[in-house]
Write a structure and sequence with these properties.
136 residues, Nucleotidyltransferase, domain 5, 4 helices, 39% helix
């Protein structure tokens, strides 16, 4: 089964208050699942990878055999495409985990702007989780 996954991660402070969000869609953009949750304080790039990993896990739970991954992080997308080397040592384990998680799934990686209507849903879920955490 083919899915479209939009994920986002964010950090206020970089490192600082962090959250992840994402939306899993069918190939015709019907929402299948979504997530919005606080993660331990970290950097923006780590939060992006954590969102990706959570999204892949959810896609697999729904029986994904292929997934089109969309993110607004050009760095993460280019790393996954093999265009950029992973220079930051702390990102290497997250990259390895993502590649391993996708071992049995066909995946494509596309950089999209935050303003993309589907990507903006993932961004809103990140902010929702961070706002809720700040309110407590």
């Amino acid at each position: 089964m083919h899915f479209i996954l939009h994920t986002d991660g964010g950090s206020r402070g970089n490192p600082g208050l962090s959250a992840i969000g994402g939306v899993l869609f069918t190939s015709d953009y019907k929402r299948v699942a979504h997530f919005s949750e606080r993660v331990p304080d970290t950097t923006n790039n780590v939060a992006e990878y954590l969102a990706l990993l959570k999204g892949i896990h959810i896609a697999k739970m729904h029986g994904a055999t292929s997934v089109a991954i969309h993110m607004d992080s050009e760095l993460i997308i280019r790393q996954l495409q093999g265009v950029y080397k992973i220079k930051a040592e702390h990102l290497k384990p997250y990259y390895a985990e993502a590649i391993s998680a996708l071992n049995d799934i066909q995946a494509t990686f596309t950089h999209v702007p935050r303003e993309n209507p589907y990507q903006s849903k993932a961004d809103a879920l990140v902010n929702q989780a961070m706002d809720a955490s700040e309110a407590t």
